[in-house]
């Protein structure tokens, strides 16, 4: 399992394959978990989710951005997506990775791009979630989040439970809307828990800390054991359902997503789209090696 995970994580970081994938269209089974390569196809998927009582957080995929031109292009695509959310009147908000808009180019440049994005979203009362990436980008990301929070209240970020420092980061952001996840990158033992048991334990610990605070929290997991524990904890502690939501990825456990929404829990699906799908898809294969079947079936059918 570990070798398989490491293999796909390594593939996700391969810039040559990532560049090539932009020319392929959705291949290798990626169409099952990526909602198209353009805004129109993505919006169709979001409207279908909304019809089931499910909201969306939209990720205009993009990675390996190391020059200003690509970062500015990504910013314009995100702004177009915000306009599309408003135009179509869908229940949706944005998720943005800072490396996509210039974090690896220049800190100030990235901050200015994000200010433009968050301000445009604020005009339409649209929330912007700043996704968390690997450990090397963690502190720079948090620095920009704190800068944005000085002027905007429609912005939040992600806490990854596999990092030792996450409880302190949670405390520093206790009045901010957050998404809690286990974590999708491979990190060294000096900074992160390595066993599933330790990661799961810390994840539930962080969730329970947050649920007792009067601030909205997104609990992003496909783990039915965690979901059951959260539901029980909320009920036992009289925590209103308006204080939290469950999130899952587009294309995963779709029936459970509908069931939770039907049970009256707030639910949001993470909806990725765009031509830059390769790195995202490889990380999904790393997380859930059974999804390799999707890729194999796609290859065999070609």
From TrEMBL:
EC number: 1.5.5.2
Domain Proline dehydrogenase: from-to ranges: 43-287
Keywords tagged on the record: FAD, Flavoprotein, Nucleotide-binding, Oxidoreductase, Proline metabolism
Residues where substrate binds: 97, 283-284
GO MF annotation: an example: nucleotide binding
Pathways involved: Amino-acid degradation; L-proline degradation into L-glutamate; L-glutamate from L-proline: step 1/2
Keyword Oxidoreductase: yes
Oxidoreductase in keyword set: yes
InterPro entries linked to this entry: FAD-linked_oxidoreductase-like, PRODH_bac_arc, Proline_DH_dom, Proline_oxidase
One Pfam family named in its UniProt record: Pro_dh
Main enzyme class: oxidoreductase
Residues the entry annotates as binding FAD: 132, 160, 182-184, 196, 221-222
Entries under PANTHER family matching the protein: PROLINE DEHYDROGENASE 1, MITOCHONDRIAL (PTHR13914:SF0), PROLINE OXIDASE (PTHR13914)
Name under which the protein is recorded: proline dehydrogenase
Gene from which the chain derives: fadM_1
């Amino acid at each position: 399992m570990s070798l398989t995970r490491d293999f796909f994580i390594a593939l996700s970081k391969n810039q040559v394959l990532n560049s090539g994938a932009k020319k392929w269209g959705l291949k290798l089974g990626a169409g099952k978990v990526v909602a198209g390569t353009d805004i129109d196809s993505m919006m169709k998927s979001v409207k279908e989710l909304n019809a089931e009582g499910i909201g969306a957080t939209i990720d205009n995929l993009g990675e390996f951005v190391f020059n200003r031109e690509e970062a500015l292009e990504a910013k314009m695509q995100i702004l177009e997506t915000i306009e599309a959310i408003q135009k179509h009147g869908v229940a949706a908000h944005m998720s943005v990775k800072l490396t996509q808009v210039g974090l690896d180019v220049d800190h100030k440049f990235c901050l200015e791009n994000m200010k433009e994005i968050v301000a445009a979203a604020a005009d339409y009362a649209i929330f912007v979630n700043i996704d968390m990436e690997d450990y090397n980008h963690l502190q720079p990301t948090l620095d920009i989040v704190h800068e944005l929070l000085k002027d905007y209240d429609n912005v939040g970020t992600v806490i990854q439970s596999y990092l030792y420092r996450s409880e302190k980061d949670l405390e520093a952001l206790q009045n901010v809307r957050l998404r809690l996840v286990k974590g999708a990158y491979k990190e060294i033992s000096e900074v992160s828990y390595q066993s599933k048991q330790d990661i799961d334990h810390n994840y539930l610990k962080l969730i329970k800390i947050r649920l007792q605070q009067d601030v909205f929290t997104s609990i992003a997991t496909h783990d039915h054991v965690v979901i059951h524990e959260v539901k029980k904890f909320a009920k036992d502690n009289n925590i209103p359902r308006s204080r939290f939501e469950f999130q899952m990825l587009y294309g995963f456990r779709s029936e459970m997503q509908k069931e939770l929404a039907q049970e009256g829990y707030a639910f949001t699906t993470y909806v990725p789209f765009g031509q830059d799908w390769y790195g995202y898809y490889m990380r999904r294969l790393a997380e859930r090696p059974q999804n390799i079947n999707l890729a194999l079936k796609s290859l065999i059918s070609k």
